[in-house]
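Summary for the funding panel

The consortium committed to producing paired sequence-structure records for every protein in the target list. Below we show the first two records in order, beginning with the earlier of the two.
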Amino acid sequence: MVAAGSKDGHVYGIERSAVAAHAGATPDAKALVVRYKALVTTQENADTPLTSDKMTHFCPGSQGGIEWNGPGYHHELGLLYANSIHWCTSVKLKPIDQMKGAHGQAWSGMDHPQAAFGVLDPVETWNGFVTAVDAQDGSVRWQVKTPKPMVAAITPTAGGLVLTGDLDGDVLAYDAESGKVLWKDGTGKAIGGGVISYSASGKQYVAAAAGMNSGIWPVKGGPASVYVYALP
């Protein structure tokens, strides 16, 4: 199988042979075969049509359910791990006769001059999740709710850890089987990038990219840094 995290808040298990055939882009290519889709964040009004009559509140919001960092796989446990976000959006469309875009400007049909992609819920209401999903059937083995959205990379290790980071700047190590936090260290810089484990000269290290700054995400990471950890 191939596993992928999606903006719609699901982890998908897809038949690998179908993916290979689909990539060939031939007229008779097999359609993608989805074995399962596991919901790993809040879902609300996901299939509700947007209208020009009223605001439609939906989750995942316009920032998506799973961001740029995809799930990680633990071979021995047969689990996929995914970070996700809960940050909902409200959208009201302009009437069709008023839907006019301008070159070089964002245009989505949203009836709001300052929020082209919808009105995001206040950050006081947002949160995130770290979820372990059975890689064979898509069932959720465990899920941890976090105070803020989780957008950083997630990396399981053979030693039974799941490594990631959060927007408060903490580098985190979860127990791969239970989801219990076993260790954390504060960097003071929002983490939204890579978190990896590697070996050098026979010694194991963990490295985390910290210092996320974004015009969309209301966090300030300051100058970017890479934090590297190792056992004594």
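The next record, for a separate protein in the list, is shown here:
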Amino acid sequence: MLPSGGERTGLHTALGCAAVLIWSTCVGISRSLTEGLGPVTAAAAMLLLGGGLGFAAAAARGGALRRLRDVPRPYLFGCGSLFAVYMLSLYLAIGLAATREEVLVVGIINYLWPGLTLAFSIPLLHKRTGPLFVPGMAAAFAGTVFAAVVPGPATLSRLGAALAENPAPYALAFVAAVSWGLYSALSARWASRAEGGAVPLFLLVSGALALVLRFVLGEQSHWTGRAVIETIYMAVGPSLIAYAFWDAALRRGRIVPVASFSYLTPLFSTAVSCVYLGIAPGWNLWVACALVIGGAVLCGRSIRDR
């Protein structure tokens, strides 16, 4: 017996939640990988392998090219461009962070995207907001302030000093958050009725761009057994399965519950990164996580269908 429409919607929503859990491992493992390979080499390896495996799996099912031809062109080109911007921005931000502690800050800034997804859903998906939306966004952005300053009073001068010392990874992490928030909302708008997505193609294009950038920059890489294992995991898990799950959830699931569960990603990611990278986080990072999560929760509770 085939599942009903409601059951299929619930399944796709569950896939989106599974994607969030897989993504929680991304920042810590990516940092370990970029330390040996360099950020663009690591991104190219993960994305090209993930995209290749995705196309192989789609070809094994049959009808892959037909489904790709049926994908709406705005989704294919618009969301594909945002996907590439997100990938390159995130991995460059992780790789350019001066220390492993700074990587945790990059992760928290990147995880503004759940709140931004809801913010973009207002004009793009015709949602309406309640009075909690503005305080929620303010709390989420305040979390990034606490993340960016070393333990101590969170003043504007301390924030300015932290940003001036190494602004590139913070700026790239914010670009990643904005681009993924837009990608998530526009996927739900442009491809909600499509039979299939184009994640393997997006991965391959993003990986090809990273490969070109790698040769332009002349980045040096040092491959080890650990780097190979981490590359395979990142290609299969966060770079293929998680994005395919997320794409299916956005197109066929319920975006508000999925985005709501994703509020917890900063907490999951920070905890996993601390364990994997051997970091003892300061109090400011836990305050930052609480503010980003709390802000996203407030935003989610204020979003309703028109």
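Regarding this second record: The two ends are 34 Å apart (CA to CA). Confidence is low (pLDDT under 50) at residues 151-155.
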